[in-house]
């Protein structure tokens, strides 16, 4: 079967592409390469350079290929930037998704997997967070994903589109081959920032807040390995192919780790001191965000295989150690 992966040159999209190909799928990657990396695309995937905001690019894509399903990763993802440049996020995240869905339905493609986010939940009422939690986005970025989910909800009812929205928490790690990994500019994620300190590329990390209502005073987050995320996407697509109804799924490991726990694990893996300083809290940071993933486990049989925090960091360290400049190497 043939799958379209938008944003397949990015961090998560490139890992999903690789796992799809390992499982025998035919993959077409569609990416404008503004944030992604051509070198991250698996050599066995068909690469199409194009922009979701350009309908003629999408027309050519769907004219050339008949897809059995779509996995949509292409979007801007920086929470802070979304608050400074809301129109960029509403245009590039929402309009591009609408264009993609319109082209897909015009060409008879009615299975769609959306890369959604835990940023739908700014101040959850219950931990761990289930799918029944009220959606109160924590940023413009989170709002664009919430809008995407609502578009899918209505297209299911009006056009017969079947979809899964996967709301994942903190994606992390790298493919065990060491050939692809995380390379953002700017980098905002905790694990790669810590590893950049270990490589001497940063002086220290900054820990935002030390007085949260958690055991050590720092925020607790749910970290899920990117290969486990890829497996979840494939299980979701296969469920739709087999006739399952549309649905939304929170996706995480179910375990929460504080910033200080992450720091100690990174120090143990790298053998470096990784200096850290505390600074003021960031607006909107919830004390604890941990996913309840029981729904996707029970319905799709998904089980994370990277359950050990040190093993997760080891895969990331392997990538960063051998690619200190990312894909520029």
Can you describe this structure?
By secondary structure, the chain is α/β, with parallel strands linked by helices. The protein folds into 2 domains: 2-172 and 224-251, Rossmann fold, CATH 3.40.50.720; 190-221 and 254-328, UDP-galactose 4-epimerase, domain 1 (Alpha-Beta Complex). Helix content is 39%, strand content 18%. The strands form 3 sheets. It has a 7-stranded parallel sheet, sandwiched between helices.
Q: Note the beta-strand portion.
A: 15-25%
| Secondary structure tally, helices | 10
Q: Please, how many domains?
A: 2
How far the N terminus sits from the C terminus, by CA atoms, comes to 33 Å
The biggest sheet amounts to: 7 strands, parallel
Any idea what the shape is? globular
Low-confidence stretches: none
Q: How many runs of DSSP E, i.e. beta strands?
A: 13
Layout of strands and helices, then pairs:
Layout: E1 2-6, H1 11-22, E2 26-31, E3 46-49, H2 55-64, E4 69-72, H3 79-84, H4 86-106, E5 111-117, H5 140-159, E6 162-168, E7 170-172, H6 190-198, E8 205-208, E9 220-225, H7 226-241, E10 247-251, E11 256-258, H8 259-270, E12 276-279, E13 288-289, H9 294-300, H10 309-322
Parallel strand pairs: 1-2, 1-4, 2-3, 4-5, 5-6, 6-10, 7-9, 8-12, 9-13
Antiparallel strand pairs: 9-11
Helix pairs in contact: 1-7, 2-4, 4-5, 6-8, 6-10, 8-10
């Amino acid at each position: 079967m043939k799958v379209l992966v938008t944003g397949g040159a990015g961090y998560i999209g490139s890992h999903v592409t690789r796992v799809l190909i390992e499982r025998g799928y035919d993959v077409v990657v569609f990416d404008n390469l503004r944030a992604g990396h051509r070198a991250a695309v698996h050599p066995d995937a068909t690469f199409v350079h194009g922009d979701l905001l350009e309908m003629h690019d999408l027309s050519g894509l769907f004219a050339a290929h008949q897809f059995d399903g779509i996995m949509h990763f292409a979007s801007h993802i920086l929470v802070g930037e979304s608050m400074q440049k809301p129109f960029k996020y509403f245009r590039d995240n929402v309009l591009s998704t609408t264009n993609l869905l319109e082209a897909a339905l015009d060409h008879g493609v009615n299975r769609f997997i959306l890369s959604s986010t835990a940023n739908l939940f700014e101040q959850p009422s219950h931990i761990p967070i289930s799918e029944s939690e009220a959606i109160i986005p924590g940023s413009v970025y989170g709002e664009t994903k919430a809008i995407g989910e609502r578009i899918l909800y209505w297209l299911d009812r009006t056009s017969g589109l079947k979809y899964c929205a996967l709301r994942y928490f903190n994606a992390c790690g790298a493919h065990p081959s060491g050939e692809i990994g995380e390379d953002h500019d700017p980098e905002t994620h905790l694990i790669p920032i810590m590893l950049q300190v270990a490589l001497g590329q940063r002086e220290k990390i900054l820990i935002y807040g030390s007085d949260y209502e958690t055991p050590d005073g720092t925020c607790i987050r749910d970290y899920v390995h990117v290969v486990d995320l890829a497996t979840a996407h494939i299980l979701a697509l296969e469920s739709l192919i087999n006739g399952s109804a549309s649905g939304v799924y929170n996706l995480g490991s179910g375990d929460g780790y504080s910033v200080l726990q992450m720091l100690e694990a990174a120090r143990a893996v790298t053998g470096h001191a990784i200096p850290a300083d505390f600074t003021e809290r960031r607006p909107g940071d919830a004390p604890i965000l941990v996913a309840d993933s029981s729904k996707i486990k029970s319905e799709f049989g998904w089980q994370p295989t990277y359950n050990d925090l040190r093993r997760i960091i080891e895969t990331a360290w392997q990538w960063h150690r051998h690619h200190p400049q990312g894909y520029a190497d």
